[in-house]
Amino acid sequence: xxxxxxxxxxxxxxxxxxxxxxxxxxxxxxxxxxxxxxxxxxxxxxxxxxxxxxxxxxxxxxxxxxxxxxxxxxxxxxxxxxxxxxxxxxxxxxxxxxxxxxxxxxxxxxxxxxxxxxxxxxxxxxxxxxxxxxxxxxxxxxxxxxxxxxxx
Length: 152
Description:
There is one protein chain. This protein has 152 residues and is mainly α. It is built from eight helices and two strands, in the order αααββααααα. Helices cover 50% and strands 3% of the residues. Strands 1-2 form a two-stranded parallel ribbon. 7% of the residues are buried.
């Protein structure tokens, strides 16, 4: 995500974000991203998908990947080297000729079967709940219908 921070400050986006979140408690899968998408609807330019290859996504990733986005689940300390994009991360890391001892330490500390299973369970819960969000009494759409200014 690239942001025009001068415009962000000029629009008071941070204050509006906190106000919406604290006052209306709109539930969503990715709260931070969903609030930003709702607030900036009509102002967003979508980048080339190679800049946002998501690990949690189910789509076939582009062959050329410029940025791997570890969103929601499948964090590097759980997926390396066997997980989705895990080999590519290791290839890039090897190409830098630098070791990443902290990533390796965290991965080793968390790479037990219980942690991996909890990650899979989190994905199952997110998918199960995602379909119910549009039925909740407070959505970005319902707020706009009530006259609450969501978009900046």
